[in-house]
## 1
Amino acid sequence: MDNSGTTGPTERELYLMRFDAGQYLKELRGERTLSAICKLLKVTPAHLSEIERGRLPTDHLISLLASIYEVDEDDLFRRFGKIPIMATTEVANNPALQNTLAEIARNKKLTAAQKSKLYEDIHSSYVRFIKGLK
């Protein structure tokens, strides 16, 4: 059970999120044909058409789409309701980060708002740290 006090999106909400992401891809494609983009992606037009109608693409395909359309990869991952590859990799390779996130998630004394505040504070600390390096 989720201890954060919030529940995840419903199946319908996930579908709508993915449909919206697919429509965004269709807008990015603009006047280019499905075939032209599919040649770059090395997928069939039917497959790309399904993604533009709400099918969830693989992480690799999301990365390729971001590159082809020259958009922010992290944003495209979020539009599909997925965690960006770099974030997943960083968590997977950093035990201290894993422990921190797990402890915050498990702490039943913290509300969802307090957890969000902690995450914002972690980000603010990072920004201050980076500014100090200049």
## 2
Amino acid sequence: MIATSGSRKSENLTTALHWKYSIVISIALTLCITTHKVFYALDHEHVAPDTASYMIPADNLLHKHMFADTLRQPETDRTPGYPLVLIIFLATHIRLECLIIIQHILCVLLVVAATGIIFSMTESISAALVVAFILSLDIPTLLCANLLLTETLFTVNIAMTSYALYIAVTKHEQSRFAWILTGVIGGISVLIRPIAFLYCAALAAYVWLTLRKRFIGPVVLTVISFLLPSVIWATRNYVAVGYWGVSTVGATDLLYYRAAGALAVQQPGNYYKNIFMVRSALIQETCTNLELIFKQGCTQITKTDKSSYMIVKGLHIILMNPWGYLRSMLYALSYVLFGGGAETLSRLAHIDPHIAKYLLLLVTIPEVCLAIAGIGYWRRRDRKLCYVLVATIAYFLLISLGAEAYSRFRVPVMPQYALLIGGGVVRIIQFVHRACGNNNRIIKTEQL
């Protein structure tokens, strides 16, 4: 009789949990579909300044001109990940607006997945709904999904890498296939955006932290499989132009943004105006020096030679101005975390840019506070998950902190960021419950 009663209670609890799960997922699905449909309807601009740099090599490859730039020279700035996706639509004559719709659908799936994960692990409706609201209403995420850019595809890939790594550590530690699969998925991300190249170091550090003495085999398998796609593409670049690297764009970023930021932050006046002036001066100086070195016009010098010079010069400036570089990174970090897409909100909602900025600060500041609280929650609740979330977020935020950084750069880690925030919500709820419980006990004691 007692056993029967216990089993009924268990069944009732399970049924109630399933109902709550269904309701939460339904709300998340409805919310994110609505926000993405509204954004798609309001914003008809799908082309960004960087879009052409992906379209041109895709079009050249489609017309059998190999992976080339506007001059039909081998393209080394862009990697083939996103152009190969564009080719599918160009070759089948499907309108590129369909790719925009697919990107919005991928964002919806990410929202549902993150909401389901947070509810399954915490059984907190409040935390799950907060995660759904944050991801559904995040303007940079909506904007990137609406543009022909790499962010959405890259976000999905990084989310898959994080999930595969977590599953490999928790459930398939002895499976070689799990580690190889994790590395391959992560390695593909480099071909979408080269900024992920050093992510393998973050993955290796995570495996070491979680497995300790048993980390050597998994780390070797993961890192080798991660680097394989990059090595293949770097070999292509070396054969094509003599450049051994995944992308030459890193050299440009190092000198014209990171080094420029280190110099600009030390000058009086507006930091962002200073960046443009310093960057213009560096471009002119670089061109002049290259012409003196190679005895030919700047436009005739190869990307390989330019990249080598820019890397050396950029590193020299940063090493000579370490505190300036650190300050510029802090400026960039604040803009990435607190920027929130004020310009887009101002444009679509027809409100003053300053008002839009302050409205978004009402959201982004609590997000950061909840994320910090969430680190403590997940560290106690599931240390392995905590480490993978923190390692992924920390890597992609730090690696993106140049003078060009803005809120778009946090999009690839928004799912992980939202899970931290959800953990922070649970932690606050638990704190309130404990405080209320202590107050009730004090009241009862006084009454006695």
## 3
Amino acid sequence: MLKPTVLSRRIVLLPLLVLAAAGKAPVSNWESVQMLAPGTEVRFAAGTAKVVDGTLVSVTDTTLLILSVGAGQQPIEKTRIASISVKKQGHRLRNTVIGLGVGLAVGAVEGVAIGSCKTCKLDQSTLGYAMGGGAFWGAAVGAGWRTGGWRHVYER
């Protein structure tokens, strides 16, 4: 039988090892950039210059052609590109529904907890208000949860 201290150390260490194993090295394969579909939102950094966002027009073995707001189509040579990222899809609706469900559950637990008090009286309106408030705040937090972002596909 393991001692509690040994067991607690393993419980703490296991997630850290899993996170370390899941870490990926930066992608440095130009073929992954060539497989991107035209119309994909991309962000690239060229050396010390500022990051530029745009829509991918085409990719060749040596250049990347993007359409950026205000500058039009810009060809960028592969040798100038330090990194390329693509826009990830957001999940606002999914997060809103999850938040709604969690809020409903928390509201129901809160309503039952109020009703279990000896001096309190649980009626349908109290439970309804608790569940409604929980659902509202859960959905609001879910809708406001930041999703999307950028995923690296190439780094020199």
